[in-house]
Write a structure and sequence with these properties.
Layout: H1 4-25, E1 31-40, E2 46-56, E3 64-71, E4 83-87, H2 107-113, E5 117-122, H3 142-160, E6 165-170, H4 172-183, E7 188-194, E8 210-214, H5 218-222, H6 239-247, E9 252-253, E10 259-264, H7 266-273, E11 291-296, H8 304-312, E12 320-325, H9 338-350, H10 364-368
Parallel strand pairs: 4-5, 4-6, 6-7, 7-11, 11-12
Antiparallel strand pairs: 1-2, 2-3, 3-5, 8-10, 9-10
Helix pairs in contact: 3-4
The structure holds 2-acetamido-2-deoxy-beta-D-glucopyranose (4 copies).
Length: 369
């Protein structure tokens, strides 16, 4: 039989062989997975785990969808309540909204520090996700974006072995998130809708597959709707510049030397064909989970009637809440009052009784004492 050293050597070879087999028979689901620990200055440089990777789109394995995860190293238990996926709006990718470090932390950092397992996705055509071919036709309609979002949710549910999770979107992302939640109410724990799209009374000129957005005039349009005496204080010093440099870091440059972002036209076609004609993209009555609708007072991009329209159409939900943050624009997540937004979202996600209390739920004796 084998001498002891031979036996050890053979065992090592067998173990290695089975490891290779295991790896080759079950390839890692994520592509280009990179994990690192990053300090969060606002929390005494405590570290969060940041994982950057791509997943494959369900309809086409050549389309890679960019995702990021942030969590505290001590977060090891996952439940429908502490897992959340965010999605961007029509023009800028998720990392320059949800994970932009301002004042020592991003929104993602803040949630991670409170024990959340927090993710973002860039749907196809946004951020570093695969850019679909320029066919001259509209690309990445809301329904396509919602399918990419669903691919990400299903991936996270497998990764954390949970049955449902929290769903969050901003601006166009509210339509992506709501379309997802109407397609998969059973996978949706709670729905956070920040500055929803709704019926609108104007159309926007558009053609082809991609549209260009330059920095020019961006600061002025950001501040539309803000009282003149508040325009200098609503964005803390230096924050706009950080947003601009990160957002346009990978921008293209045109013949005139002007930086521009090139993004899919699908959202604009949807605005013109659906929302302008008072046609909803999804069926709100399919929503059956708690919903938070939150917006800022001076949002001139998506007005309060849109938020209220969205809210009033939530006729089948067990619980809904409407919150307005004072002194903020469409971008309040990047402004001086962003903590009010973060706190309200967190409060909603942790509220215990999201079912309206029945008369018998009140312990009047306890209240009197
Ligand atoms: C996944 O969760 C189910 C139900 O909670 C549990 O029974 C199962 O053991 C878990 N699987 C893994 C691999 O943790
Ligand atoms: C976007 O800008 C590039 C570079 O100037 C140009 O080639 C392209 O035609 C522009 N696209 C649109 C839709 O204007
Ligand atoms: C919306 O969904 C509800 C519930 O599933 C259904 O009864 C209703 O017919 C749908 N409405 C439309 C316009 O599809
Ligand atoms: C849904 O919203 C539209 C437009 O805001 C409104 O006309 C309609 O009455 C709403 N439906 C319900 C059931 O609230």
């Amino acid at each position: 039989m084998f001498s002891r050293p031979q036996f050890v050597a053979l065992t090592v070879v067998l173990v290695l062989a089975s490891l290779v087999l295991a790896t080759s028979s079950k390839p890692r689901e994520e592509v280009n997975y990179v994990e690192k620990r990053v300090p969060v200055a606002a929390f005494n440089n405590e570290k969060v785990i940041q994982a950057d990777f791509f997943i494959r789109a369900q309809d086409d394995s050549n389309i890679l969808l960019q995702m990021r995860n942030k969590r505290k190293p001590s977060t090891k238990k996952y439940s429908p309540d502490n897992v959340v996926l965010f999605v961007h709006g029509a023009t800028y990718p998720s990392e320059t909204s949800y994970d932009l470090v301002l004042g020592g932390m991003s929104w993602m950092d803040f949630m991670a520090m409170q024990g959340y397992d927090t993710y973002f996705i860039n749907v196809r055509g946004y951020g570093d996700s695969t850019r679909p071919a320029n066919t001259g036709e509209p690309i990445v309609r809301t329904t396509t974006a919602a399918d990419d979002y669903a691919t990400a949710v299903k991936y996270i549910l497998r990764r954390r072995n949970i049955s449902k999770m929290n769903i969050m979107g901003w601006s166009w992302g509210t339509s992506i998130a709501t379309t997802f939640a109407t397609n998969y109410p059973e996978l949706t724990n709670r729905l956070v809708i920040y500055a929803p799209q709704w019926y609108r009374n104007f159309q926007t000129k558009v053609s082809g597959s991609y549209r260009n957005t330059t920095i020019e005039g961006r600061r002025a349009s950001w501040l539309t709707g803000v009282a003149a005496d508040k325009q200098n204080s609503i964005i803390p010093a230096g924050w706009y510049e950080i947003w601009e440099s990160v957002t346009f870091a990978k921008a293209l440059v045109n013949e005139k030397g002007v930086k521009y972002l090139s993004t899919p036209t699908g959202i604009v076609y949807d605005n013109n064909e659906y929302w302008f004609n008072s046609i909803n993209i999804y069926n709100s009555t399919k929503l059956n989970m708690p919903v938070l609708v939150i917006r800022a007072e001076w949002d001139a991009d998506l007005n309060i009637d849109m938020s209220l329209g969205y809210f009033k159409n939530l006729t089948q939900v067990p619980y809904k809440k409407f919150v307005q943050i004072p002194e903020g624009t469409h971008q309040v997540l990047l402004e001086k009052n962003r903590m009010a937004l973060f706190r309200e979202v967190q409060h909603f996600l942790t509220e215990e009784k999201t079912i309206p209390l029945a008369a018998t739920d009140y312990d009047l004796d306890a209240i009197r004492n």
